[in-house]
Amino acid sequence: MPWTVCIDSADDPRLADYTRLTDVSLRTHLEAEHGLFIAEGSKVISRAVAAGYPVRSVLLGRGRLADLPMLGLGSLDDVPVYVVPDEVAEGITGYRVHRGALASLGRKPLPAVPAVIGSARRIVVLEDLVDHGNVGAIFRCAAALGVDAVVLSPRCADPLYRRSVKVSMGAVFAIPYARMTDWYDGLSSLRKAGFRVLALTPDERATPISSALSDAGGADRVALLLGTEGDGLSSRWLREADEAVRIPMSPTARGAGVDSLNVVAAAAIACHLLAAGG
Fold this sequence. Notes:
This protein is an alpha/beta fold. It is built from 11 helices and 12 strands.
């Protein structure tokens, strides 16, 4: 079993991995520099461990020692479990740790796009989504509904940032993903790999997504593009796509000025249709 270490001071250097988890700029720099990420909650931690991410340490509130067997650490006897009072955990992280446990894990090398899409038939491509919660929620939709892989544009938020991992409930560990190195010509590699590229947009002139997927045929490879919060897809990616598609809105809703869904709701509907082939 992992070994427990009781710590009473938030200044203890052994807790440096967990410093100020709500400070996005600090965490982005720290996690990139040290090749780590944070998972929160027993279910998410156990899923990360099962997916093969190496555990650096665990931070556990003193009253939650009973949760230790549920973390999936098994015979990892070299993993330190730092046990702290609840107020110390809050002082370190910057928020009250409701789910009882945090774990610091090492990142695995991110595969290149060709490796991730090699055998995939249905993929989702995210362009410049910057909200970590939205990215995590879309990963959960994609994994739950049977999408084969996710591809990120260079400026997309990190799927392994704590909030992404938390919102996804560990789905970021369940679906292959890769990050493009070139946004400008990023879609050309998908097309060369045989994907029909569909761009999701609220434009009423676009083809209904169910019709486009039915026309694509069940055997074809399809890549669905989802754009950034607010502005949607860039004009370049809209032009480069094979076809613009939409989720039809109620005429009544359109008359009231509601012409689209938020990106997570749209992703859920689109992923269901995408995986089902239309």
